[in-house]
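User: I'm putting together a teaching handout on how sequence relates to shape, and I'd like one worked example. Could you take Alcohol dehydrogenase from Methylobacterium oxalidis, show the sequence you're using, and then write out its predicted structure as tokens right after it?

Assistant: Happy to. First the sequence, then the structure tokens directly below it.
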Amino acid sequence: MWRRLASRRERNPGRRSPWWRRLIVGFGLLAVAGGAAFFLAWQPAIEPVSTPDRASFQPDQIRKGAALASAGFCSTCHTTDETKPFAGGYPLKTPFGTIYGTNITPDRDTGIGTWSLAAFRRSMREGIDRAGSHLYPAFPYTHFTQLTDGDIEALYAYLMTRDAVRAEAPEPDLPFPYSIRPLLAGWNLLFLRVGPLPAGDSGDPVLERGRYLSEALSHCSACHAPRNALRAERAELHFAGGMAEGWWSPPLDRSSPAPVPWTRETLFNYLHSWDSAHGGAAGPMKPVVAGLGRLPEADVRAIARYVAATMGLPAPDRPAPAEKPTDIAPARADEIHRRGAGIYRGACASCHESGGRVPFTVASLGQHTTLAGPLPDNVIRVILEGVHPPEGEVGAIMPGYAGVLDADQIADLLAYLRVRFTNAPAWPALKDDVRRIGAEEPKG
């Protein structure tokens, strides 16, 4: 009989196994894959602890943690109500949906009041909360994993000595399958490299300090690097520019389109408050500058030194600054540009044609990096929303024109600014971009 069966197989070598056998094999493979996924995803809970007493932390350690929290911009994503710092609820929109900053006050029910230092360290190093759930990488644990133990301990001391606020953060608004947290185990397997920042080989302690602050604590490439389809930073394009909350984040490498090349000093001025050659921060960069303002000046200079070293010499094909008269050359002065020039004269020229004599304006709009960038989004947002200094502080101020100029007028103005103040190609579909950005809901 066995010979007959063998001879049949030899005569029909391509014959498929019975359906029930294939089904069993398929279920077996699924079981193995599911078991492997569970093994990767499962993380044990860490036992809750009594909330540490403030007296258990040294004052110097708390002060150090305060500076680190500012340089890590913790309050930016974990605060919606300034009277309740770190109580969570801030909506961070991603291509996959909206994720909300969690409550990181020492409230025992809705915050981290039951977290031990070990639980806090695991969240910072591995992206796993005290209960064993995976955190979404909108929380930049891929950078915070590189922090030293001492800095993690100081951050823990600072957060555990804040006022406890009872506030439940909304659940992430993510469609299937992104709402399945265990899938993040696979993401971590692909993209998370746990452990402190490797020692550099520059031999320059200031440069190494700047590297540590930029790469680990301040996580600069989280915004200033492009991301792949799974929203992981593309390591091969480190500092090559990206997007953050709808704003274009310019490259911090030699591909920067800045018409006026950045230097250590101009970077320091910008990160500290304002630079006369490049202007000041707007959008998501504003809280970054505010946070860095609470660091020692030496640390901000170290960051500027590291970024300047990363940028190096400008790329040879960088567009030169455009120095053009108020009226565009006749060959480029079509009807759109004439209309834009009229809007500029009526709404902008009183400040921006002063040659920088108006406080907190640069000598020429042609010096702004974003006007020479590949996307108009930043310029559109500034025109719509304006620029406003923090309440009670001195800084750049500009009215928003959302209720004054319509989409067609703003598009004409943008076309004029681009052709007059840069040598870059025209932005396409400006009216569509203005309408898209103007229709966005304001952040809560």
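A couple of points you could highlight for students: The chain has three domains: 54-191, 205-311, 330-438. Residues 54-191 form one domain.
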